[in-house]
Amino acid sequence: MPSPVAEIPAAEPDLAAAHYAAKLAFETDCSDVHAAFAGAKVDFVLLDVRSAALFAQSHVPGAINLPHGKMTAHRMSEWARDTLFVVYCAGPHCNGADKAAFRLAKLGLRTKLMIGGMTGWADEGFAFESAAMAAE
């Protein structure tokens, strides 16, 4: 009798590779975002989709605040059509980033979700920024 882990057989390697390649096309993680900013290779726009008040209190350095409800075709036309947007919200308990990614995709824009959001960023031990800090 197999363990609960092996009870359902693992996917064949080629199917597993296809699955994870597809998954990585939709998401990135806090560590990769941090590494991009630390290495000065930022080839995406990082959007914090929480409220302006929460953004002012604390946010990921380099992020722009743009709640998903304000993502209109007119507003998004400020960026080139081939811009990659990375979106995040409070954390895994929040679907604001999913709503933002959906809205951006419906507008024909490329997007990835930063898994973990603010919670993931904190779990990694990365520093936050506040509106007061950004103004200095």
Written description of the protein model:
- The chain is an alpha/beta fold.
- 41% of the residues lie in helices and 15% in strands.
- It has a single domain (26-122), classed as Rhodanese-like domain (Oxidized Rhodanese, domain 1, 3-Layer(aba) Sandwich).
- It has seven helices and five strands, in the order H-E-H-E-H-E-H-E-H-E-H-H.
- The protein is globular and about 60 Å long.
- The mean pLDDT is 95.
- This is Sulfurtransferase.
Instruction: Tally the beta strands.
Output: 5
Would you tell me the structural class of the helices and strands? alpha/beta
Characterize the largest beta sheet: strand count, sense, and whether it forms a barrel: 5 strands, parallel
Query: Could you say what the CATH topology is called?
Result: Oxidized Rhodanese, domain 1
Distance between the termini: 63 Å
Summed over residues and divided by their number, the pLDDT gives a mean of: 95
How many structural domains are formed by the residues?
A: 1
Which bin fits the share of residues in helices? Answer: 40-55%
CATH architectural type = 3-Layer(aba) Sandwich
As laid out across the biggest beta sheet, the strand order is 1-5-4-2-3
